[in-house]
Amino acid sequence: MKKTRSPWDGQRETLDDLSEAVHYNRWIYSNVERYLGRRVLEVGCGTGNLTGFFARGRKVLAVDIHEGYLRAAKKRWGGEPRISFGRYDLKRGLGDFRAFKPDTLVTVNVLEHIEGDQKFIEAAYGLLPPGGRLLVFVPAFQWLYGSMDKSYGHHRRYTKRTLNQKLSQAGFRVEYCRYLNLLGVFGWWVNGKLLGRKIIPKAQMLLYDRILKYVTPVEKYLPKPLGLSLLSVGVKAPSR
Length: 240
Description:
- By secondary structure, the chain is of the alpha/beta class.
- The chain is 40% helix and 19% strand.
- It has a single domain, classed as 3-Layer(aba) Sandwich (Rossmann fold), CATH 3.40.50.
């Protein structure tokens, strides 16, 4: 009997491939860097592809539900004193992180995996101090939802309206919101909608990573009517 691939299998293979996509990881960090505080809670750290970036001059608590991912992340960053790790099931809420006192909560390609995403956003609002930020990086546009989204265990994709509505409903003021990665839209559509692939081919990903090095300096100045991804930053209003 053929073994069924789980979302964890496909994600782990892609996360391992992404560890070599240095320009892509640096690009994500460049988009969120200005909004990071001094104490960062990274929810869904995976194998640590972005964790080291977040720890540049900051204290980071990186958590994930998958023990295999955490082992890889700890092997990679375990010697960094500014980073600590923990295995955590978000079904327990976020109250256990109060002792860490985060001023920033970051999720990169995580919210789409959470069935009760509104409940998570509301929990983030309750955890953060006044002036604290929730940084949400997610896949954009439901019409791009295809075989790769299913393989990775995505419940949905987002638009500015749907994501910002959730942030506002929880109490956040949306400080920044923009579609990103216009170049990636065509590749995701071809692979996930036209060809029905389960994961992003590694060779294609690394080729894209090399191209990204030259595209991003120009893309940041262009209007973004659409993109493969969406970044939204919510701020918790200061206490009066």
